[in-house]
Amino acid sequence: MSAVSDNYVNLKQYKERQVSSQRSLRGINQDKAYRWNRENYSRHRRFVDIWTFVLTLLFQLWLNGKPWSYPGGMTDAKQAARRKTQAIWIRDTFLELGPTFIKVGQLFSTRSDLFPGEYVEELSKLQDRVPAFNYDQVEAIVKKDLGKSVSELFDNFDPIPLAAASLGQVHKAQLQSGEEVVVKVQRPGLRKLFTIDLQILKGIARYFQNHPDWGRGRDWMGIYEECCRILWEEIDYLSEGRNADTFRRNFRTYDWVKVPRVYWRYTSNRVLTLEYAPGIKISHYEALEAAGLDRKLLAQLGARAYLQQLLNDGFFHADPHPGNIAVSPEGSLIFYDFGMMGRIKANVREGLMQTLFGVAQKDASRVVESLVALGALSPVDDMGPVRRSIQYMLDHFMDKPFEQQSVSEISDDLYEIAYGQPFRFPATFTFVMRAFSTLEGVGKGLDPEFNFMEVAKPFALQIMTNGNSPEGNTFLNELGRQAAQVSSTALGLPRRIEDTIEKLERGDIRLRVRSIESDRILRRMSSIQIGTNYALLLSAFTLSATILFVNGQVGLALVVALVAAAIAFALIRLLRRLDRYDRML
């Protein structure tokens, strides 16, 4: 048998195992029942369920800071273990609370700048493989949205879904014309559930915003608004279809990227029909080997595809986990699920690269400036402490050349710097860093020697040099970079002066003027006032001791006299210090 035939047999066996595992998974999902897995929801019941979780979490957070709650005493190891246990509980509770919280948990898994690492790690494992809803409901939604029954629209429609998630499920079908498609149908009652849950979450966000501890320096209402925008966009299948079309157009000249075509005649707000584009999941390494595909090349292509989206197109897949990327038998990358997409402007792209370069080069000033430009850092009157914190982290944790840096390590360092500081990374920034880290993990799985930063370097240099070739004499390149930096500073100087004048006019800048002579006089007056008080106390205690001694209270008079002696000693020290300070000035 030829090598091609062997590869075909191995690939066929892999697909059979995949189908078998999917069907067994569906059986497991059907056995698990969730209260939210229904079409009609009770607002009062949701309110009780959600606030019960929030209040329980608040009590646990309060308990975390109490030493008596740790058997044998509070240690860092015990605190970390407790946070780990709480993180697992939070992840499981989000799954129990349903689609809204599953998606919110997945969004929070990108916010290492806001939440402890244990929480982020567990939320990143949050999978929304949930029970499928009934086929009768699928038929009802299709008929209501598309105006015709399933049998009228499709020649064949598999009632068993290929996959079921929190927001919807996917069925394989065949059009009357014979074309094979997949039909994505939204979960019944999802919009009503989102409306109820987001109203409750708004009250929770407002509570945290006004909290004296957890609300300080955190824009919880802004985070809530960002979550609302992302969630509503993700359940609009018309928007997802437009995203898929835009993504496909951006890669129309690349034969190694494939994007399923949208069938708009069979698409609505709750139904999305796409071209059937089967492939091997990019993290199924054995199957890729069996198909005779070059894993090293696939790792390079995956990184190049994302860098093309981010740095050239400005329109990127915000959730490129292995389940959303497959490989065709010909070796092309297939992208799925365009509900969560990000857009990034040219100046933001440059700012992102400035941040990465600043971290890699241990340049705290460059990192601060780029983060302020990105809106990830709120400028304050004194940026010195923030800059010193960044420089400390860079000096102690970044000890490799740029080409050997790991994206996940850089992002972890940035989030470590941000946690507890006035950093508030925008959602776009966190999506980009998460995608970088995910793709780096996939790349290393495909090729242990894969280095994402090495692939990114040509793209980054192209952005930083405005398209000029980075090749040539290193000294001349560095000289040109320094000249460009000086010219940029010179051109930006008038704007910075104007901004400073505007801040002075608005009263945003406070000037501190210190007069040494005035300070000396004030300090002398304060010391004289304290000395006067000591003298009055000394006189009072001396007189009291004399009266007590005359009246025969010798013991009590001795105690009062000792107090008077202590006051006299303090008064003498004050006078000597005041005299010495006058001689110095």
From TrEMBL:
Residues 156-528 form the Protein kinase domain. Keywords: Membrane, Transmembrane, Transmembrane helix. GO terms for molecular function: ATP binding; protein kinase activity. Signal peptide: none annotated. GO terms for cellular component: membrane. The chain crosses the membrane at residues 530-550, 556-575. GO terms for biological process: membrane lipid biosynthetic process; regulation of response to reactive oxygen species. Coiled coil: none annotated. Belongs to the protein kinase superfamily. ADCK protein kinase family. This is ABC1 family protein. It comes from Coleofasciculus chthonoplastes PCC 7420. The lineage of its organism: Bacteria, Bacillati, Cyanobacteriota, Cyanophyceae, Coleofasciculales.
